[in-house]
User: What shape does this take?
Amino acid sequence: MSTLSYILPLVIAIVVFFSLIAAIRAAKQPKKVDKGFVFNYFHLSYRRKMIRTLILLLLIIPVIIAMPYVTDWSRSTISLLSAAMIFSALVQFIFTFYQWKKKEA
Assistant: This one.
């Protein structure tokens, strides 16, 4: 197995860990920001979350294209991960759009 096969789960675990810490801290700070740069996703308004999710959708495409060249995973694994990434980003985009329109009304 390649070194990437060992490093990738570690990187994912670290990202999930820091995301959970950010979520816990965000629960204590309900103020939402609609202008300017905010590092924490949970401090954004639904409109800004939707914009950030749209950017995420655009960044997923090069990752999907690069996966066969960077990993030694099978085509079925890459297809499954690609579909999961696109599906989760689309669900998040639709949800934040719905919440934005709901809050705006």
About this structure: The two ends are 53 Å apart (CA to CA).
